[in-house]
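Lecture 7 notes: from sequence to structure.
We start with the chain below.
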Amino acid sequence: MANKILILTLFMLGCNPIKKAEKTVLNNLESSERVFRELEKTRPCANDTTIITKYDTTLLVDTLTNYKTDTIRINGVEYITIKEQPKTIVKTIKVKEIQTSYIVDNRRLGIMADSVRYFSTSLQDSIKTSNKWMWRFWGLFGILIGYILIKRFLWSYLNILH
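Predicted structure tokens for the same chain:
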């Protein structure tokens, strides 16, 4: 009975697909890179995210002095008299400007830069390939036109000789 349990345990540990996948991922650089790229999309790194908040306060001060005056002219000379004590009105406005900026996960930015690089190089490769096939098409088209023209002139020349 103990032999059967031991054999069953060894069999289950030896054929465990999860353990086998873990070994493949950890030992093979190419497969681990694929797995980690997929994990980065769903689980971003929280340590790289930084929040920067900038505060800017501006004070606008406006002072106004209110006088009530009376002007009297005696023999061409103007005399200004103040009727009331002057009142000073001070108006203060505070303008607060808050800017919050986020510096996002650097790893995710690296992934995006890699994908942009990949697609730009694949676009350049496809442009080169399409140019190559375009020149081949026009070359074959020219050969076909040349063949048709040579055949017509040759047949017309041979028909003239008969």
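Points to note: The mean pLDDT is 76. The two ends are 105 Å apart (CA to CA).
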